[in-house]
Specification:
- The protein has helices at residues 9-23, 30-37, 41-44, 51-62, 75-91, 97-102, 108-123, 128-151, 157-168, 184-207.
- It has 208 residues and is mainly α.
- It has 2 domains: 9-48, Homeodomain-like (Arc Repressor Mutant, subunit A, Orthogonal Bundle); 66-207, Tetracycline Repressor, domain 2 (Orthogonal Bundle).
- The N and C termini lie far apart (66 Å).
- Keywords: DNA-binding, Repressor, Transcription, Transcription regulation.
């Protein structure tokens, strides 16, 4: 067994992230993480109450890759950068990406990104109540888009089934224009619709 290292929550999370990057989500067991660190699995519980809490920390660590948006950019450009950055950062760490989708991070990095999102939404002209609801919607979209990207992203057998079904509907355009589920194309189109909707709601709030 490798020589034990002094343990901190950060060192444990970094080791778990390495394992996930290398071997996938199922490999991030307490036993595997302890083996990576050269310690007894029970030592991890001195820093995290359970595996879910540890994975929460790993998910937050993965979000450190997301850069703060340019404060001089328009609000919609900042929101686009944030949401696309969150998805891209999670996909760079496939072992933790499903956990990020299921439980968006709430620790240091999650709070940093959440604050940047709220600032952009406020500067868009949304009322405080609408800014809160919109941030929840954006997080939900980012999480669902990430979950679809983890599971799909290509024109597989299911895509062909859906495409053929759409093509058979009355007055429907050819289904071959359907983006693959979880693809960049699908994600970008959906995010553009959301940003247009935010602009509409902000205009309505301003006229209220």
């Amino acid at each position: 067994m490798p020589k034990a290292k002094p343990l901190t929550p950060a060192i444990i999370a970094e080791a778990a992230l390495r394992i996930g990057d290398r071997d996938g989500a199922k490999a991030m067991s307490m036993r595997r993480i302890a083996g990576e660190l050269g310690c007894d699995p029970m030592a991890l519980y001195r820093h995290f109450p359970d595996r879910q809490a540890l994975l929460d920390a790993v998910a937050d660590l993965a979000m450190a890759d997301v850069r703060d948006p340019d404060p001089g950019a328009n609000w919609d450009h900042r929101l686009h950068a944030l949401v696309t950055g969150i998805r891209a950062a999670a996909l760079r760490h496939p072992g933790i990406a499903p956990h990020v989708a299921a439980r968006p991070p709430l620790a240091e990095q999650g709070q940093r990104l959440g604050a940047a999102m709220m600032t952009a939404l406020t500067q868009a002209g949304l009322s405080p109540a609408d800014a809160i609801r919109t941030s929840q919607t954006l997080v939900a979209y980012a999480a669902s888009a990430l979950a679809m990207a983890v599971q799909g992203g290509t024109r597989d057998e299911r895509w062909h089934q859906v495409s053929d079904t759409l093509s058979s509907l009355p007055d429907a355009p050819p289904g071959d224009g359907l983006p693959a589920t979880g693809s960049d194309e699908q994600f970008e189109f959906g995010l553009r619709l959301l940003l247009l909707g935010i602009r509409h709601v902000a205009a309505a709030d301003a006229g209220a």
